[in-house]
């Protein structure tokens, strides 16, 4: 005879997740829990919490790719358990990285022979790439100064105040002084003349940005090259240039091929680009390319046999996933030159649609230029009652994430909103965004200004206090 | 009347071709230049997928500590988070919160002196390399500030470690201009000797780095003893030199298997600890953690505050943009497994390591170099290296699909070469037994080959001794000498060139 049990005593493991006790317990926050829980419960709980994160595709703050083709997703998932650094075990993956480096080096017109291997490396992002490039410059400069018998303890780097934070990190962590060319209202990139003036004997390099973070502009690298060449001829200092092409590196070659900014300019010794921005790969990949072997001091390269065979390496990170490197190669061969060109042209088109829509409202100044990274940076013509931060806040309710921020010195009185146009920001989304911005403006127009509220509050508080004081007949005294 | 057209081959619609019928598999894959044209996504997928078949199988890669298998539920979470850029803290507050929870859990696991609900000081990184660089930077900056305050020179910082350190310490030293003072190893003692380490400490030492789970042999260094000796020296000299524990492998083993081993923040001089989430944290490659004892151990001037993406975000990392998948996967593992889950898994690893070790001992050909207490791995050397080396065994094992690395010890034990098998979560007992049997096979084959060569040489020598030389002059060498010459030549052909520098 089979004894049947009542349902409440049945095996806990058959409960559906939402029937189980696991969704009644509060998630551990400070200590690892003692017991295991079923994998379905773990999955469900985490998945559900993450629903409250922003939607990556509506995150218009970021340059970083948020959509890839399903075929590429398949390749990435298959490679998620491959540790990239095991070069001996995964020779094909290593070869794919090398092919990417070669292709990017040729895209940037590195002075290489047809079948010559380029000097470069895949990184986790432009931050790592910039640190490696900066390290190479620092070491080269130190070696040169040592040879000349001159002091080498005060290296500096010249950039614009519009640099992305990773340059400041490089400077602070690697003990290099950062000499920033200040911006001015209306001029939001590094002025090549001012930059060259700031160069001295301790300057390890001048860093120009192709695609400024703030407003997408391309700096005039050619002018910088010309002016710096002259100065080098006068001083004999031989100061080189690095181009931070994190965003612009995968735009300029396709949209502006005649723009000279890369290795065609003799003083440019290294370039970094983010594979995960307009390289059209998910977050986690960047590239650093050097002009030639001579520009990368051999002493910085490590040779290890940890995993069984000799592996030369110049990176900050060691173990990391292989997925993004494979995805980058996928994009390069899947799209080819024409594919990238088409996508960038579409982004540019959609940026124009957005720009024109905003101009039509009559409420905004457009701060970004038409040439450059496809983004639209705009500020309110009149921000006396409501400012850009409030617009940004209100847009969130519609699901859009549009950041607002202040310009760096000396233009910190300017606040802008910035929308980055990525591959997956179609025209319909652009038109929706304009509509929603108009809605937000309407709402703000009828709302009292925060400043009005503050003044009223202050007035009523002051009146009450005055009455209180008069009642008590306090003596006068400055407070 | 419908006119039907015959389809001439020139108007053939190429887009109908299945990939292997198309022209895409006839063209060589571009290697140096970006191709001019696009190709269909199916073709791109297929050609890359097919090339990658020639890579090693990650799960048979016994060289690596890094996780190669996760539950499908976790794979789902990872896939869904691929397009989330971790650094957008304002846009993805939950993901940021998950990182903070992981930091708290790890800090408590390491007995950081914080209150029950106090937030720990720590950060998620891409791996232990980044974690170690951040920890080293913090030590360097603290030491510099202290020396400046004392009016002493601060231009020659150094760090004391064992010669068995992983390469990232050498990277840190070289890239951040800190001198690396290495305590040399010796035959039979393959970790840092605490006494020698403390003897090397001077006023310029920014910290002493101990390893919990040496890369080479899996051993745990005696951090407790180091703490004692260093405390004494600090008292004598007034230098206040701290300790960092590189627990890349051991950090997720010791708390579960060796609870009584005192190695973490329970020791007063330990100021920071790093651990790899992607080793025994059981997450795929791409996540590490560094935890500081308290706020005071992380100089505020190293922390950046940015509003690039629209709101204030404090950050202390070398990398900026990166994927969110591994952080989410780490949190999944913590709540999915809990303390008991991790304990069970590591215990299984130790069991399987024992099976492997015993199997190898039974062949009678190997000395076991790794210890039983430590990271579950087996490092073994050949008893007799006359005719072939561990590098030959490693090479031959590849034919069976196994990737088992061979390498030389660092100075001063570089004459010792070992094979090392790392036992990960997904290395079951049956795989261990297969490996033992395949190693048997390889050793037998190599023995056979040696016998064969010796036989051939002996035959040659016979012919020569009987006056077979073409120039008529008799070469009077003993059989033994000739055999040795031939074998030495053959050995040189086959054995690998070893570079020094363990990582």
UniProtKB/TrEMBL annotation, chain A:
Catalysed reactions listed for this entry: L-glutamate + H(+) = 4-aminobutanoate + CO2
The enzyme's E.C. designation: 4.1.1.15
Modified-residue entries (N6-(pyridoxal phosphate)lysine), positions: 277
Pfam families: Pyridoxal_deC
A cellular component annotation (GO) from this entry: cytosol
The keyword Coiled coil is assigned to this record: no
Molecular function as annotated in GO: glutamate decarboxylase activity; pyridoxal phosphate binding
GO biological process, one term: L-glutamate catabolic process
Keyword Transit peptide: no
Cofactors required: pyridoxal 5'-phosphate
UniProtKB keywords: Decarboxylase, Lyase, Pyridoxal phosphate
NCBIfam families: Glu-decarb-GAD
Similarity comment text for this entry: Belongs to the group II decarboxylase family.
Protein name: Glutamate decarboxylase
Organism: Rhynchospora pubera
TrEMBL record, chain B:
Residues recorded as bearing N6-(pyridoxal phosphate)lysine in the entry: 279
Listed EC numbers: 4.1.1.15
Catalysis performed (reactions): L-glutamate + H(+) = 4-aminobutanoate + CO2
Keywords: Decarboxylase, Lyase, Pyridoxal phosphate
Cofactors (names): pyridoxal 5'-phosphate
CDD domains noted in UniProt: DOPA_deC_like (cd06450)
The UniProt record lists the keyword Lyase: yes
Molecular function GO labels: glutamate decarboxylase activity; pyridoxal phosphate binding
Cited PANTHER family: GLUTAMATE DECARBOXYLASE
Family per similarity comment: Belongs to the group II decarboxylase family.
Annotated protein name in UniProt: Glutamate decarboxylase
């Amino acid at each position: 005879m089979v004894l049947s049990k009542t349902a409440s005593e049945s095996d806990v493991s058959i409960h559906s997740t939402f029937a189980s006790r696991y969704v009644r317990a509060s998630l551990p926050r400070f200590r690892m829990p003692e017991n295991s829980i079923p994998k379905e419960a773990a999955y469900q709980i985490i998945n559900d919490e993450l629903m409250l994160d922003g939607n990556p595709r509506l995150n218009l703050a970021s340059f970083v790719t948020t959509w890839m083709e399903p075929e590429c997703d398949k390749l990435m998932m298959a490679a998620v358990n491959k540790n990239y650094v095991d070069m001996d075990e995964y020779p094909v993956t290593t070869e794919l990285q090398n092919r990417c480096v070669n292709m990017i080096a040729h895209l940037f017109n590195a002075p290489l022979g047809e079948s010559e291997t380029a000097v470069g490396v895949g990184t986790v992002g432009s931050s790592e790439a910039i640190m490696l490039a900066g390290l190479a410059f620092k070491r080269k400069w130190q070696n040169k100064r040592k040879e000349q018998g001159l002091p080498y303890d005060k290296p500096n780097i010249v950039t614009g105040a519009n640099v992305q934070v990773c340059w400041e990190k490089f400077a602070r962590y690697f003990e290099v002084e950062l000499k920033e060319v200040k911006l001015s209202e209306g001029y939001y990139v590094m002025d090549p003349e001012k930059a060259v003036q700031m160069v001295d004997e301790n300057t390890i390099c001048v860093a120009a940005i192709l695609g400024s973070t703030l407003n997408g502009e391309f700096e005039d690298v050619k002018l910088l090259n010309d002016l710096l060449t002259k100065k080098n001829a006068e001083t004999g200092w031989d100061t080189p240039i690095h181009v931070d092409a994190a965003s612009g590196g995968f735009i300029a070659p396709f949209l502006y091929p005649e723009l000279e900014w890369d290795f065609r300019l003799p003083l440019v010794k290294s370039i970094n680009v983010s594979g995960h921005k307009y390289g059209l790969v998910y977050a986690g990949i960047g590239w650093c390319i050097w002009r030639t072997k001579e520009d990368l001091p051999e002493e910085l390269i490590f040779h290890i046999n940890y995993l069984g065979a000799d592996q030369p390496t110049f990176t900050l990170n060691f173990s990391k996933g292989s997925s993004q490197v494979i995805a980058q190669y996928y994009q390069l061969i899947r799209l080819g030159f024409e594919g990238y060109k088409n996508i960038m042209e579409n982004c540019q088109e959609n940026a124009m649609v957005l720009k024109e829509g905003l101009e039509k409202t009559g409420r905004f100044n457009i701060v970004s230029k038409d040439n450059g990274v496809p983004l639209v940076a705009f500020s309110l013509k009149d921000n006396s009652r409501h400012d850009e931060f409030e617009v940004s806040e209100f847009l969130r309710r519609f699901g859009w994430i549009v950041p607002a921020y202040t310009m760096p010195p000396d233009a910190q009185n300017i606040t802008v909103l910035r929308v980055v146009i990525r591959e997956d920001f179609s025209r319909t989304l652009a038109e929706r965004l304009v509509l929603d911005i108009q809605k937000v403006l309407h709402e703000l127009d009828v709302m009292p200004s925060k400043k009005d509220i503050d003044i009223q509050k202050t007035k009523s508080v002051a009146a009450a206090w005055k009455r209180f004081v008069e009642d008590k007949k306090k003596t006068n005294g400055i407070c | 009347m419908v006119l039907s057209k015959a389809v001439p081959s020139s108007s053939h619609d190429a887009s109908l071709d299945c990939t292997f019928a198309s022209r895409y598999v006839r063209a060589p894959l571009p290697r140096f230049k970006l191709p001019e044209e696009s190709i269909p996504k199916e073709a791109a997928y297929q050609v890359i997928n097919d090339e990658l078949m020639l890579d090693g199988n990650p799960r048979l890669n016994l060289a690596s500590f890094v996780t190669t298998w996760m539950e499908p539920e976790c794979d789902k979470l990872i896939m869904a988070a691929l397009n989330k850029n971790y650094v957008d803290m304002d846009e993805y507050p939950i993901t940021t919160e998950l990182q903070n929870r992981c930091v708290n859990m790890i800090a408590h696991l390491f007995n950081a002196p914080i209150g029950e609900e106090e937030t720990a000081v720590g950060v998620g990184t891409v791996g232990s390399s980044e974690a170690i660089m951040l920890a080293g930077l913090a030590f360097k900056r603290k030491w510099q500030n202290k020396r400046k305050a004392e009016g002493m020179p601060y231009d020659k910082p150094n760090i004391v470690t064992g010669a068995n350190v992983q390469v990232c310490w050498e990277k840190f030293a070289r890239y951040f201009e800190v001198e690396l003072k290495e305590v040399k190893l010796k035959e039979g003692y393959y970790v840092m000797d605490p006494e020698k380490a403390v003897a090397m400490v001077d006023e310029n030492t920014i910290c002493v780095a101990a390893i919990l789970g040496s890369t080479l042999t899996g051993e745990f260094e005696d951090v407790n003893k180091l703490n004692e000796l260093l405390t004494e020296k600090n008292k004598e000299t007034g230098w206040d030199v701290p300790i960092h524990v590189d627990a890349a492998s051991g950090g997720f083993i010791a708390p579960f298997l060796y609870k009584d081993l005192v190695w973490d923040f329970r020791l007063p001089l330990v100021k920071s600890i790093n651990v790899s989430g992607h080793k025994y944290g059981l997450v795929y490659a791409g996540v590490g953690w560094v935890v500081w004892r308290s706020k005071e151990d992380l100089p505020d001037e190293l922390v950046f505050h940015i509003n690039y993406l629209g709101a204030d975000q404090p950050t202390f990392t070398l990398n900026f943009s990166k994927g969110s998948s591994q952080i989410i996967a780490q949190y999944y593992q913590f709540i999915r497994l809990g303390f008991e889950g991790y304990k069970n898994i590591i215990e299984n690893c130790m069991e399987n390591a024992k099976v492997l070790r015993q199997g190898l001992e039974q062949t009678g050909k190997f000395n076991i170099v790794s210890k039983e207490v430590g990271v579950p791995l087996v490092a073994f050397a050949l008893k007799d290296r006359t005719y072939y080396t561990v590098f030959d065994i490693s090479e031959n094992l590849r034919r069976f699909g196994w990737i088992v690395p061979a390498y030389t010890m660092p100075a001063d034990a570089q004459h010792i070469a070992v094979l090392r098998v790392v036992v990960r979560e997904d290395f079951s007992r049956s795989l261990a037994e297969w490996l033992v049997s395949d190693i048997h096979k390889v050793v037998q084959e190599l023995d056979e080959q040696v016998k064969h060569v010796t036989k051939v040489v002996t035959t040659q020598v016979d012919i020569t001794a009987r006056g077979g030389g073409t120039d008529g002059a008799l070469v009077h060498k003993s059989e033994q000498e000739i055999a040795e010459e031939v074998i030495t030549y053959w050995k040189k052909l086959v054995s690998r060139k070893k570079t020094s520098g363990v990582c």
